[in-house]
Structure formats: structure tokens, C-alpha cells
Amino acid sequence: MRKELFRKVSLIFLPTLIFMVMKLLWFTYRKKYHFIDEPIEGQCIAVTWHSELLISPQAYRKLRKKQKTAAIIAQHYDGELIARTFNFLGILPLRGSSRKGAKAVLISAIKALKDGTSVMITPDGPKGPRYSMSDGAVALALRSNLPLMIVNYQANAYWQLRSWDKFVIPKPFTTLNIYHQVITLNDMQKDMAKE
Fold first, then answer.
1. Which of 14, 20, 24, 191 has the most C-beta neighbours closer than 10 Å?
2. 64 within 8 A of 118, measured Cβ to Cβ
3. pLDDT digit string (tens) for 69-126?
């Protein structure tokens, strides 16, 4: 009962606090952008690893300020925190994951894509294995004929949590090397596309 009450209260205050910390850290970083491909206009399937969620959504928003975007976010407490935090970035939540609510969230993602919205996915979420490519991002890209936009980064100095994804928190005032790549999967088989 006490844990449930704590979670309800924390969902009111924590997303605002998390977002403020995210933005404060973001402003301290020296950012170097590396474009493996030219930035694209319009819709895409945006992909980043689960361990990079502190920075990659902010980098995505920097690159695509006006693109309407929704993110597939798991249906658990941590997912709710992420969903409410992403709202501050103008990224709408689509709730579900490969483990729970997969069919419903896939239908929601397809509807969002038909609406002109880009969809953001962490293909190794919600519980890993770390850096593994699940079917979701590839299936959506193949079905919609949209490119994958990959945003990753490396920090010169960072803390790393002991969570399954080894979540990364770049230290204040460090340099971030942010990488942008676009991959088109047209006419590929799913296994080859995942590879």
C-alpha cells in the first residue's frame, strides 16, 4: 500500500524533476555531431538503445524540432515515468512492448504512421538483452517503407548504472559525440534487415 502511494505521488513530481536534470545536463555538454548520412526530412522510424535514453531523445529533438513523434514505451512504472518525461519533449507515448501489449501497441504505431507521425523505438527494451534488435522497429520500417533513423552517442566521461542496460549518464561539461545514420530497408527480408 505504501509503495503504491509513493509511486502515485512520485509520478506527479519525478517526470518534471527528471526533465529539468536532463535539460540542465544537456546545456553543459560540448556536442559534436557526426552525420554518417544527411539528415532526412519527414517521417522515419527513430531508433536508439535503452541505455542512451537520457540523451538520444534530446539529440533527436535537436535534429528534428518540428516532426510529430510518438515513442513506444512499456506499460510499467518506469515506462510511465519515461512517458511523462517525454511529454516535455513533445514526444507522445504509445504504451506497450514486445513483452506486454505488443499487438495493441503495433496497431497504435501503424495508425500513428498513417497520421504522419514518426515513431521512436528502443529495440532492446524493455528488459533486453542489451543491444539486441527486436522485431518491432524492423517490422514497422518494412511495413511503412520508411527509413530507420539511428541516433547514438558516446560520452568522454560518464557514470554507468548497474542496471541490465548499463544505463549511461554523461558527466556535466563532458563532450558528447552524437552519431546520426539513416538506413533504408526496402525489399529486405526481416532477418537480413535485423542484422
1. 14
2. yes
3. 999 998 888 889 999 999 999 999 998 766 666 778 888 999 999 999 999 999 987 7
At position 70, the amino acid (one-letter code) is A
Pairing of strands 175-183, 148-155: antiparallel
pTM for the whole thing? Answer: 0.89
Strand partners, 35: 180
How far apart CA 69 and CA 148 sit, in angstroms, is 14
SS (H, E, C) 101-158: CHHHHHHHHHHHHHCCCEEEECCCCCCCCCCCCCHHHHHHHHHHCCCEEEEEEEECCE
